[in-house]
């Protein structure tokens, strides 16, 4: 007795409307939108902006923001980690160029990012969050990218030979403090000028 052939199911059931995959993709897009909006508002309007206002500006419901980021500190941390991931990606792209001065490009980007997010970083410090502890893999990835570009720059004679990656990372952190001390967080021109002054110290004598 032959069996009745079963009817074929949908070719890709996971991709249908309302599927888990679609919902997950939608949730990721909403999270990205919230992160971008929060980063911009924190930089332009300060940390006093509420989660509900961030939701309104991002075009999502308040519940979406609170679901992804139950506290303001959680959102601060996510914004900071997101910026580091972007810098890691930039470092990876620069590593493929073969440019011996690419280190300066990455460090300039790091200092610009730090200047834009100095309020967020200060809030994390105040809340006793350490990015190296909270996101050790991401922080280590960025340090490795800087180390690789530093090695290449030193081999080409574009950077002084006595410089270590630890000293470079310390100088970047010092740049954030210098920019804040000068009150230059909201001025890209002034913060970039301070960054250039610091980066000039890395060049061979």
Automatic annotation (TrEMBL):
<feature type="domain" description="HTH tetR-type">
    <location>
        <begin position="28"/>
        <end position="87"/>
    </location>
</feature>
<dbReference type="GO" id="GO:0000976">
    <property type="term" value="F:transcription cis-regulatory region binding"/>
</dbReference>
<feature type="region of interest" description="Disordered">
    <location>
        <begin position="1"/>
        <end position="24"/>
    </location>
</feature>
<dbReference type="InterPro" id="IPR001647">
    <property type="entry name" value="HTH_TetR"/>
</dbReference>
<keyword id="KW-0805">Transcription regulation</keyword>
<dbReference type="InterPro" id="IPR009057">
    <property type="entry name" value="Homeodomain-like_sf"/>
</dbReference>
<protein>
    <submittedName>
        <fullName>Transcriptional regulator, TetR family</fullName>
    </submittedName>
</protein>
<keyword id="KW-0238">DNA-binding</keyword>
<dbReference type="InterPro" id="IPR023772">
    <property type="entry name" value="DNA-bd_HTH_TetR-type_CS"/>
</dbReference>
<keyword id="KW-0804">Transcription</keyword>
<dbReference type="GO" id="GO:0003700">
    <property type="term" value="F:DNA-binding transcription factor activity"/>
</dbReference>
<dbReference type="InterPro" id="IPR050109">
    <property type="entry name" value="HTH-type_TetR-like_transc_reg"/>
</dbReference>
<dbReference type="Pfam" id="PF00440">
    <property type="entry name" value="TetR_N"/>
</dbReference>
<feature type="DNA-binding region" description="H-T-H motif">
    <location>
        <begin position="50"/>
        <end position="69"/>
    </location>
</feature>
<dbReference type="InterPro" id="IPR049445">
    <property type="entry name" value="TetR_SbtR-like_C"/>
</dbReference>
<dbReference type="Pfam" id="PF21597">
    <property type="entry name" value="TetR_C_43"/>
</dbReference>
<dbReference type="InterPro" id="IPR036271">
    <property type="entry name" value="Tet_transcr_reg_TetR-rel_C_sf"/>
</dbReference>
């Amino acid at each position: 007795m032959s069996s009745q052939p079963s009817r074929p199911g949908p070719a890709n059931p996971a991709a249908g409307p309302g599927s888990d995959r679609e919902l997950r993709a939608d949730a990721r897009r909403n999270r990205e939108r919230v992160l971008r909006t929060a980063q911009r508002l924190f930089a332009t309007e300060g940390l006093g902006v509420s989660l509900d206002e961030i939701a309104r500006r991002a075009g999502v419901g308040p519940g979406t923001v609170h679901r992804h980021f139950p506290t303001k500190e959680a959102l601060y941390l996510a914004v900071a980690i997101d910026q580091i991931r972007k810098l890691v990606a930039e470092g990876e792209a620069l590593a493929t160029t073969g440019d011996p001065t690419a280190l300066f490009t990455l460090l300039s980007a790091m200092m610009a990012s730090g200047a834009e997010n100095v309020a967020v970083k200060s809030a994390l410090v105040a809340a006793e969050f350490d990015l190296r502890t909270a996101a050790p893999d991401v922080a280590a990835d960025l340090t490795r990218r800087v180390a690789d570009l530093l090695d290449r720059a030193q081999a080409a004679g574009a950077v002084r030979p006595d410089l270590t990656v630890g000293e470079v990372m310390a100088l970047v952190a010092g740049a954030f403090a210098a920019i804040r001390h000068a009150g230059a967080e909201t001025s890209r021109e002034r913060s970039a000028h301070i960054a250039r002054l610091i980066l000039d110290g890395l060049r061979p004598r």
